[in-house]
Amino acid sequence: MFKKIEDIEVWKRACRLAMEIFRLSEHDKIAKNWGLRDQIQRSALSIPSNIAEGYERNSRAEFRRFLFIAKGSCAELRTQLYIIQGLEFVSLEVIKPLIKECSEISSMIQSLSSQVSVTKSRK
Fold first, then answer.
1. CATH of the domain at 18
2. How far is residue 26's CA from residue 13's CA, in Å, rounded to a whole number?
3. SS (H, E, C) the chain
4. 1 assigned to some structural domain
5. Number of domains in the chain
6. Cα–Cα dist 57/43, whole Å
7. What's the pLDDT tens digit per position in 5-63?
8. Between 60-86 and 9-24, two packed helices, what is the crossing angle to 10 degrees?
9. Which candidate among 18, 33, 72, 95 keeps its CA 20 to 30 Å from the CA of 106?
């Protein structure tokens, strides 16, 4: 399947999204709301972190389980971005591409989890 975590495209995209979220959290209205800032950062970090943790457990069942956790974190982040949009903390031009990327990453995680067989070991 993959030789190392760095070979997984959805992990790379999730890492880039997390960096974008950290940049977003520097916006004045978000930075001042430490609870929201902390939560979007945690959600964003959780996506690639869970993909990596599941992969490194060397079990397809564990990998799949952590992919579902990552997918849940992606939905959590997308929800938080909609709230930021609703509160008008940043412009739509900033938020819309991030929401789109969350949706695409979620679809990629779903696709990857479908490819992971629970019955066979990865190595």
1. 1.20.1440.60
2. 20
3. CCCCHHHCHHHHHHHHHHHHHHHHCCCHHHHHCHHHHHHHHHHHHHHHHHHHHHHHCCCHHHHHHHHHHHHHHHHHHHHHHHHHHHCCCCCHHHHHHHHHHHHHHHHHHHHHHHHCCCCCCCC
4. no
5. 1
6. 21
7. 999 999 999 999 999 999 999 999 999 999 999 999 999 999 999 999 999 998 999 99
8. 30
9. 33
Map tokens 């457990």 to a residue.
57
> What is the residue type of 117?
S
- Give the residue among 96, 110, 105, 88 at the shortest CA–CA distance from 18: 105
Range of the structural domain that residue 74 is part of: 9-115
pTM: 0.91
**Residues constituting the chain:** 123
**pLDDT tens digits for 90-113?**
999 999 999 999 999 999 999 999
